[in-house]
C-alpha cells in the first residue's frame, strides 16, 4: 500500500511504516522505553530524509508517552515540581540543540556527530544495563538481594540553592535536574529520542529520586519536551510529517499494548537482559556504519533535499 | 491525443513555413502529486513542419529534454579519517537541475559535436552546473560525477539515447519517466530538431508538477502556518495516544 508523505516528499509503503511503529511499540510496552532510539535510525535506513525522521520520531514519542504519563499522574507517580524543573531544562536544551544543529550542518558534520552520539550513548548505557542485568540474574539464582546503592551523590549535594522535592524525597539544588533536562533536550533535538534511557538511570543513580516517581516523572518530562521540540522543528526546519507520525502511532499504540501483555508474562530480569541486547545491537550497527565504507560517498544538501 | 495528432498533421499540410518548425505537445500540462503518487510517465510528442511540406533528403533527428527547476546545492564527499568516514571535501553548484531527462532518436554524441551539446545542454554530461566554490578542476569533475551518479540512481537524471520514435519523418514521440520523489515546480520540455550536427529548430512547452489535494494542504500548512501546524501535529499525537490508552484500558 503506497502512500505519499507530503513533507518527506517520497512515497512509502504504509504497512512497512505501521509495522515499524508496531515493533518499536512492542519494545515500549515491554520495557517502558520510548523507543525513539530505534525509530529514528530505522526510518533513516528505510530512506526517509534524516531531518524528517528525527522531527517526526519526536512527535511520535509525544503520542506514545501520553497514556503512560496520564496513568502515572493518576496514581500519584509524578513529582510535578521536579517535572517542571526538568521540562524547563529540556526546553533550554532543545533551543541549544537547534543552534548546535545549525552549526554542525554548516560544517557538514551532522551525520558524524549524530552517529557518534548514538554509538557512545547506546553503547555505554547498553553495556551498563547488560552488566546490571547479569548481576541481578546471578543474585537471583544465588537467592541474594542485590546491594543497595548509596542514595546521595556528592557532586549533586554540593550544588547551591536547595529546594525540597517532597514526592521525590529530596532536598537538593534544582540546578541538578535542570542540567539533566538540558542534556536530554539537546539529545531530543539532535537524535529524535525522548531520552528516557538516559533520564531514568540518572534520576535513580545521580539524583537519588524515590523509585516510585521516577518513571512517571520521566514520562511527564518527555511528553512536554518532545512536544516543545516538535514545535521547534515545525517552525524552524519544517520537517514534521504528520502523515508519517500518524502511521507510526497507529502501529506504535497497538504494539505497546501487545508488548505490555507480553511483559506481564516474563521475568523482569530477562526483560532487562533482552533490552540491553537490543540497545547494544543498535549501537553496534551504528558503529559499523561509521567505520564501513558508506554506500554513498557523496551527499547533496540543497533546497529540495 | 489522436485528434491532436490529426490536427497537427493538417497544420503541417496547410501551413508551410520558410524553415522547419516544431509543433510540440505533452500528454499532461499539469501533474498532480496525490497520496497514491508512485511516479508518472510523461509523453512528449509533436510534429516537424518542413517548408512546403517536403521532407529533406538528409536524415533529421529529434532530441527532447525535460528539466525541473534548478537550485543551488552543496555537495560533500566522505573520506576515511582514523578509521571512520567523515565529510571532508565540499563543493557548491549554483544551477543543478532537480530533474533532467533527455531522450533522442540517436545517441547525443552522434547527433551534435561537443560544443553544440554544451550550448544547448544536451545530455547529462553537458549540464552547466555552475560550480561556485574554489576547488581544483579535477575535484569539481569528481563532484559532478558523484552528483550525476546519485541523481541517476534516484531516477532524477535520465538519458534515453533511443527514446524518441519518429514516424514518417514528421511525427515524433518520447516517453520520459518521473519517479515518486520528483521535485515539485515548473518543468520545461524542450524539443530540438537536429540535422547534420546543427540545431535547426527548437520549441518549448511548460509543465507544472505540484502537490495537490490533501498533500498540498499539509505541505502549504507546514510552510505558511508552521506554528499552527506544529500545534496541530502535537494535538493529533496526544489525541491518538490518549485515545489508544482509553480504548485498551476498557478491553
Question: Would you summarize the structure shown here?
Answer:
The mean pLDDT of chain A is 82.
Which terms summarize this structure?
heterodimer, A: 305 residues, mainly alpha, two-stranded antiparallel sheet, 11 helices, 5 strands, 72% helix, globular, B: 251 residues, alpha+beta, six-stranded mixed sheet, four-stranded antiparallel sheet, 12 strands
What does this entry look like structurally?
The complex is a heterodimer of chains A (305) and B (251). In chain A, 72% of the residues lie in helices and 6% in strands. Chain A is mostly helical. In chain A, the strands form two sheets. Chain A has a two-stranded antiparallel sheet. A two-stranded antiparallel sheet of chain A has the order 3-4. The mean pLDDT of chain A is 82. Helices cover 31% and strands 40% of the residues of chain B. In chain B, the strands form three sheets. Chain B has a six-stranded mixed beta sheet with strand order 2-12-11-4-7-8. Chain B has a four-stranded antiparallel beta sheet with strand order 1-3-10-9, with helices on one face. Classes of the chains: A mainly alpha (305), B alpha+beta (251). Chains A and B meet through strand 1, helix 3, helix 9, helix 10 and strand 5 of A and strand 5, strand 6, helix 4, helix 5 and helix 6 of B. Strand 5 (298-302) of chain A pairs antiparallel with strand 5 (70-81) of chain B.
